[in-house]
Amino acid sequence: MLTVDFDRLGLRPGERVLDMGCGAGRHAFEMYKRGADVIAFDQDADELATVREWFTAMREAGEVPEGAEADVKEGDALALPFADGEFDRVVAAEVLEHIHADVDAIKELVRVLRPGGTLAISVPRWLPEVINWKLSDDYHNAEGGHVRIYTAEELVDKVTKAGRSNDGTPGDAMVFTGKSYAHGLHAPYWWIKCAVGVTNDEHPLARAYHRLLVWEIMENPPALRAAGKVLDPLIGKSMVLYFRKPESA
């Protein structure tokens, strides 16, 4: 299930792109299929090993355009091992809510993005996330769990300020270009999980709803696509913000 809209991001074949906090690699795989030169970045070596295997399998199966490249890189989001302006597009999907020093991580995302490049950041949406926190302490107190709940205004402010030069020149600030919401069908699942116990996967209601989500992911039937279009703007679990780095940066 993709969260970021790559057409909206402006991704084109041959561009160098970073998937920061790639996890299992879902966004990295899609960008690779679109012909990008992809770096999947994460601190989890085991997940990166699996992502690398999938990159190889995709290439061998002929699922990627000629000339597209993909690799993995392990490291720290607070000190990205890349040059200034190295990437045309940067994606950080569902990762900033896990990082205590999120402003430092955002500064790194902005630093490695070239002038004129675009950035997409997705985080849990405020209202669905607040409900999860109210229903269950275990949801956010788990090791490596969520440490904050963002509003759109807060995250826009942090990203635009991170893009300013050291003297605070406003003209160098990142430009916010819009937002969207995704995964409206997923928010009720997590409300159920938080209500019955986040580890209680065998609860009948949780199991039934999980089957619905598997059906959505695997088959994407028209009825669920239609439901998603209605629910995404109302209770979409994820919020996606898009930014552009000024050419003058």
From TrEMBL:
InterPro entries: Methyltransf_11, SAM-dependent_MTases_sf. Gene3D superfamilies: Vaccinia Virus protein VP39. The keyword Zinc does not apply. One of its GO terms (molecular function) is methyltransferase activity. GO terms for biological process: methylation. Its EC number is 2.1.1.-. Keywords: Methyltransferase, Transferase. It is an enzyme of class 2 (transferase). Transmembrane segments: none annotated. Residues 18-121 form the Methyltransferase type domain. This is Class I SAM-dependent methyltransferase. It comes from Nocardioides zeicaulis.
